[in-house]
Amino acid sequence: MRVFVAGASGAIGTRLVDQLIGRGHEVIGTYHSSPHADRVAALGAKSIMLDLLDPAAVRQAVLDAEPDAIVHQATALANIRFSRQLDTPFAQTNRLRTEGTDALLAAAREAGVTRIVAQSFASYRYARDGGPVKTENDPLDPTPVAGTREMNDAMRHLDAAVTEAGGAALRYGGFYGAANDGLVGPVRKRQMPIVGNGAGMSSFVHLDDAAAATVLALEQNVTGVFNVVDDEPAPLREWLPVLAIALGAKPPRHLPRWLARLIAGEGAVMAATEARGASNAKAKRELDWTLRYPSWREGFAAAYQSLRSA
Length: 310
Ligand SMILES: NC(=O)c1ccc[n+]([C@@H]2O[C@H](COP(=O)([O-])OP(=O)(O)OC[C@H]3O[C@@H](n4cnc5c(N)ncnc54)[C@H](OP(=O)(O)O)[C@@H]3O)[C@@H](O)[C@H]2O)c1
Known about the structure:
Number of strands: 15
Strand order of the largest sheet: 3-2-1-4-5-7-12
Distance between the termini: 41 Å
Bound molecules: NADP nicotinamide-adenine-dinucleotide phosphate
Radius of gyration: 19 Å
Structural class: alpha/beta
Helix content: 40-55%
Low-confidence stretches: none
Shape: globular
Mean pLDDT: 96
Oligomer: single chain
Largest sheet: 7 strands, parallel
């Protein structure tokens, strides 16, 4: 297959390109920051520069590539600083998930491509009632907390637009598996506390497992929404101390809800105390996906072994 990967230079993009090429596919991969051109080419892909927010450029790039399949892995989350209003640091990513998705889908339509897979997100989105672990059939949060509505709307848009176009929206768990993962710095500096009872659930996925599920979704040409998460959704109070140990950091501090709300905002308190996790039963069943790291317990230890000894 000839696969057009938007966002090929990123954390998930690079692993995906590597695995696609390893399975004999041809890849045209896009980057956005000029120093990243070599990253994609070094993996054996054709590397092109693309701004997904430029629809004319997206159209031309897709038509020129003549792909059999299109993947959307573009986000603007590297090095973001979380703020009390999460919609603010996510603004560019929200545009990539709405305008960027629409531009890619329009180009796909014109190029006659229906094999499409796009990056969505599973954690912190499902309705905050009922059991702790949700399937793709369970409702999303109808009333996202203040400061997170735009990001929730953008992910809903992506899920709906991609599946209506016959593609698959992969609701990944929180990515980990690289030295510069978003949680590494804050946990090492003890800036990430257990808030309140720490009962909020998170779902994680190792980047290698996420890439493997993406390859399977492409090869099997599936349609619909899939939670691409590991086997063990877990409350903050369980996974955070394990992550701290894996990173050789001191144990996390504890913070009451009211203080966390003042410092970090509603979104952070919701994630820490009320969020639901996601079930991967559908992805395992329908994609025949086998995880190398079924739980973050062994995944964190493996991913950060070198950091710990450094
Ligand atoms: N996925 C989530 O919802 C989420 C949430 C919170 C934190 N994070 C953190 O973000 C990282 C996730 O990895 P990722 O692969 O999603 O992100 P990433 O490593 O930042 O990769 C994003 C990709 O999108 C590309 N891109 C950025 N702006 C673009 C634009 N305007 N047009 C086209 N392409 C554009 C980037 O290109 P260049 O690299 O060339 O600029 C890169 O290829 C992890 O470190 C994780 O901890 C993710």
